[in-house]
Design a protein that fits this description.
The protein is of the alpha/beta class. It is built from twelve helices and 19 strands. About 30% of the residues lie in helices and about 20% in strands. Bound molecules: guanosine-5'-diphosphate, 6-O-phosphoryl inosine monophosphate and magnesium ion (MG).
């Protein structure tokens, strides 16, 4: 059995949570493989809305096992808040969620370091979510991290050593000794709460499931343009968000990867700093933001909006080996007379369709303009009802991207999803 991966092809917030929830009934298990509470995955069904940060979006379906893999970084306090609110909604989370012992813990001091590093960067700040993601992954790769499995070992000493090091760093950066007493007490309490969950060697668990013929869907967080190696560095997150991250973040071999679902919005958004070639600073950008409710699920920040960028999409499709495309939020463009798609970049007078090393300067997007469909798509139930201009738009994208669009989302609700034949 193979493991399928669903991941974002843009700068995050493509709608991963919604589609993972929709696809979960096809699978036995859903697993997160990277990122942490920087993610905000929104699901809507039966008139209710949920935002998940660390817990996989398969948690609401029919009792499928959900796994937090070793590649994830977990903040016990935020995890507890999220888990308790799910329990209140009637989800039997303690029985269906398993957590890798090798996942790293986000400490209160990691959040302080995140803020301190951002401040040091001044105008060049990344605009992180402030959840301590960068410092936690830095500790992991510099071999200073604290893992969930450590809570079952010599935890007090390991925690004290990590805290001491962070406080020295914070003192050096800010000149002050941080007061973490309150946050620390809450965090230590949440670590105990975490121990009520089944902490597993997820690499063994996942591979045994595959050997037994069970099907697994991996849920990406962030998006490929935020990948630490291939994204718009340094304005990226600190993990490998691309498909290869599912191998390292769960312990599955590359030859076990099956379908790769690449998800994108019919336009494009970005939160935080960094280059965005097709960004719209005009009324059209504002219209997309308003109609698409483009405000961050985690931080509430305004999302920057622009046209879909096919140069970037071809690049991320290549990096991930995407086998099926999923197009989200096309309904947001329902009222537009014309829609633009960036097909190439003009860099200093030279046209390129290859995503370049730097997208920071001297780059002008070259657009193809298509007629809008001017139809309310939100109530459409099958592709037979697609207006002609929408069919043409899909055919155009499939030709440009060379991968079939198999799912089209026309609204935030679980039901507003069209699976194409
Ligand atoms: P994720 O991080 O990739 O899971 O995406 P987010 O949840 O951060 O952002 C996607 C937003 O778009 C959420 O508010 C969803 O409820 C909403 N959404 C998802 N699909 C659609 C769609 O097809 N149409 C509209 N209008 N909204 C959608
Ligand atoms: P989901 O999973 C959109 C962005 C931040 C910032 C950069 C680094 O909901 O799609 P970090 O806190 O990771 O160090 O911030 O990455 N970012 C996201 N943008 N969606 C996300 O997650 C994001 N997670 C991080 O805004 O620019
Ligand atoms: Mg999000």
């Amino acid at each position: 059995m193979k493991i399928d991966v669903l991941l974002g092809l843009q700068w995050g917030d493509e709608g991963k949570g919604k589609v993972v929830d929709v696809l979960t009934p096809r699978y036995d298990v859903v697993a997160r493989f990277q990122g942490g509470p920087n993610a905000g995955h929104t699901l809507e069904f039966e008139g209710k809305k949920y935002v998940l940060r660390s817990i996989p979006s398969g948690i609401f379906q029919h009792g499928q096992v959900n796994i937090i893999g070793n590649g994830v970084v977990l903040d016990p306090v935020l995890f507890r808040e999220e888990a308790e609110s799910l329990e209140k909604s009637g989800v039997d989370i303690k029985h269906i969620l398993k957590i890798s012992k090798k996942a790293h813990l986000i400490m209160p001091t990691h959040r302080l370091l995140d803020a301190a590093y951002e401040k040091l960067k001044g105008d060049a700040k990344i605009g992180t979510t402030g959840k301590g993601i960068g410092p936690t992954y830095t500790d992991k790769t510099s071999r200073n991290g604290l893992r969930i499995g450590d809570t079952l070992l010599d935890f007090d000493n390991r925690y004290a050593a990590a805290k001491k090091r962070h406080i020295e760093l914070l003192k050096a950066i800010t000149g002050e000794t941080p007061d973490i007493a309150e946050a620390e007490a809450k965090w230590l309490d949440a670590v105990k709460y975490l121990q009520q969950y089944e902490l597993i060697d997820s690499e063994h668990y996942v591979n045994k499931l595959l050997a037994q013929g069970k099907s697994i869907l991996c849920e990406g967080a962030q998006g490929s343009l935020l990948d630490v190696d291939f994204g718009s560095y340094p304005f990226v997150t600190s993990s490998n968000t691309i498909c290869a991250g599912a191998c390292t973040g769960l312990g599955v071999a590359p030859n076990k990867i099956g379908d790769v679902f690449g998800i994108f919005k019919a336009y494009c958004t970005r939160v935080g700093s960094g280059p965005f070639p097709t960004e719209l600073h005009d009324e059209t950008g504002k219209k997309i933001r308003d109609l698409g409710h483009e405000y961050g699920a985690v931080t509430g920040r305004e999302r920057r909006c622009g046209w879909v960028d096919l140069v970037a999409l071809r690049y991320t499709i290549m990096l991930n080996g995407v086998t099926q495309l999923i197009m989200m939020k096309s309904d947001v463009l329902d009222s537009f007379d014309t829609i633009k798609a960036c097909v190439a970049y003009d860099i200093d007078g030279t046209t390129t369709t290859d995503f370049p090393y730097s997208i920071e300067s001297n780059l002008t997007p070259i657009y193809k303009e298509l007629p809008g469909w001017k139809t309310n798509m939100t109530t459409i139930k099958s592709e037979d009802e697609f207006p002609e201009n929408f069919k043409n738009y899909i055919a155009f994208l499939e030709k440009e991207l060379n991968v079939p669009i198999t799912i089209v989302s026309v609204g935030p609700d679980r039901e507003q999803t069209i699976i194409r034949k």
